[in-house]
Specification:
The protein is of the alpha+beta class and about 180 residues long. The chain has one domain (about 40-180): Electron Transport, Fmn-binding Protein, Chain A (Pnp Oxidase, Chain A, Roll), CATH 2.30.110.10. It has helices at about 30-35, 45-55, 95-105, 140-145, and strands at about 40-45, 60-65, 70-80, 85-90, 105-115, 120-130, 165-180. A six-stranded antiparallel barrel has the order 2-3-4-7-6-5. Strand 3 and strand 4 form a beta hairpin. InterPro entries: Pyridox_Oxase-rel, Split_barrel_FMN-bd. It holds the Pfam family Pyridox_ox_2. It comes from Natronorubrum bangense JCM 10635. This is Pyridoxamine 5'-phosphate oxidase family protein.
């Protein structure tokens, strides 16, 4: 990890809190009815959430370290039978992602779809993320590739042979979904 990447001594550690958006006042306008009272959209049912997670294979995994957060795009395969997601994560030498994984007590995985301000869905999951030391059973690897939107290893700035791939299990402890759509 370079000094720039270190959340304890890097540039992020020097940030001063900014004033609240809109001068501490709540934004008003055409979305006032949507933003007031009960929050955005409506709750999704368990079946709607499961279908959404099976249909989408990418999300944002949020990790933390010493009060700093780190969100990374990931591919996942949803396993609703066991309330978990399977992830295939790649690590370069001195990986920031790996450093954050080592200190994160509870992770958050967010999956969303946005078409317009009146057409969107999102699912937020919190849970434990653990490395699958024994690899992955054949049926789970097949499920991963059926549902995940996997990326090519060439997206990293290092040769593919320098990237260590490892399977992880995200055990879902809390799950919620919201949608702009009427059910």
């Amino acid at each position: 990890m370079t000094p720039v990447d270190d959340p304890d001594t890097g540039p992020l550690s020097q940030l001063v809190p900014r004033p609240a958006r809109y001068g501490g006042r709540r934004k008003t306008g055409s979305n006032e009815a949507t933003m007031s009272g009960h929050g955005y959209g409506t709750s999704m049912t368990h079946d709607e959430i499961a279908q959404f997670l099976y249909e989408h294979g990418i999300g944002v995994l949020s990790l933390s370290r010493n009060g700093h957060s780190y969100g990374i795009p990931v591919s996942y395969g949803y396993d609703g039978d066991r309330s978990r997601c399977i992830l295939d994560l790649g690590f370069a030498p001195e990986s920031k992602k790996e450093t954050f994984l080592e200190t994160t007590e509870q992770s958050c995985l967010t999956v969303y779809e946005w078409q317009s301000p009146t057409d969107w869905r999102s699912v937020v999951m919190t849970g434990d993320l653990r490395e699958l030391d024994d690899g992955l059973e054949a049926d789970l690897e097949q499920r991963y590739y059926e549902h995940a939107d996997d990326i090519e290893i060439a997206v990293f700035d290092r040769p593919p042979e320098m990237i260590e791939l490892q399977w992880f299990e995200f055990s879902i402890e809390e799950l919620s979904g919201r949608t702009s759509r009427s059910t």
